[in-house]
Amino acid sequence: MPELTVVVPAYNESEGLREFHKRVSAVLDGMPDLDSAVLYIDDGSRDDTYAIMCELRASDPRVATLRLARNFGKELALTAGLDHIASGAAVVIDADLQDPPELIPTFVQHWREGYDVIYGTRASRAGETGFKKMTASGFYRVMEKLSSTPIPRDTGDFRLLSRRALDALGQVRERQRFMKGLFTWVGYKQLSVV
Ligand code: UDP
Ligand code: MG
Cα dist. 7→19, 103, 105, 131 in Å? Predict the structure, then answer.
């Protein structure tokens, strides 16, 4: 049973998945005292994402795969992945390398200090269009008005969740899910890493 599982939802990511795995493996290899695994979730991809996942699984004993019957969207793909982690903590990360896997050891360090949710906050939104920045900022303004749960800005799903945070999250069975809100909602000790 791994102490830490990296959970990666992927939809049509065949182009970059091997490179992603190379980067994540190097990071995990750098933490030999931590028993780790990688769980890839194929969210009904139409390209050969799943075939590549199987290739990675065949060559790396750390890898497990989950394949959804059709495309359910990222929130549910992520939920399916998190539901399959029976023990230990999880790191959630996108497959497209927009989140730097090299930050995982920093997350682990804070987890060992006693934090339950450690999330990556972007220092800048470089590379995104003005339109995306404007709509993102509008989205967060509206969410802050509507919700009593504060949702950290400039923060994706990239984070580490302790076992008790995962257990709390597992009790929430909404079908229309906004994971960034739920991750915050579980409470406990949370920390932003810029
Ligand atoms: N993703 C998924 N199902 C989908 C759409 C996306 O599993 O229907 C995955 C995608 O492969 C990536 C992550 O979710 O690993 C984030 O997706 P994307 O980069 O499109 O979102 P954004 O960067 O805009 O948050
Ligand atoms: Mg992305």
Answer: 16, 15, 15, 29
Q: What's the whole-model pTM score?
A: 0.93
Q: Is 10 in the pocket of ligand 1 (CB under 6 A)?
A: yes
**The tokens 């934090």 sit on which residue?**
115
13 in contact with ligand 1, CB cutoff 6 A: yes
- Residues bordering ligand 2, an ion, CB closer than 5 Å: 96, 98
DSSP E strand stretches across the chain? 4-10, 36-42, 63-67, 89-92, 117-121, 155-161, 190-193
Please report, in tens digits, the pLDDT of each residue of the chain (194 residues total).
899 999 999 999 999 999 999 999 999 999 999 999 999 999 999 999 999 999 999 999 999 999 999 999 999 999 999 999 989 999 999 999 999 999 999 999 999 999 999 999 988 877 788 998 889 889 888 888 888 888 888 888 999 999 999 999 999 888 888 888 889 988 899 999 98
Give me 185's structure tokens: 């909602």
CA of 96 to the centre of ligand 2 (A): 6
* Cα–Cα distance for residue pair 113/122, rounded to 1 Å: 22
| Encoded amino acid at 52, one letter | I
Kindly report the protein residue whose alpha carbon is nearest to atom 10 of ligand 1: 10
Kindly state the tokens that stand for 134. 């404007």
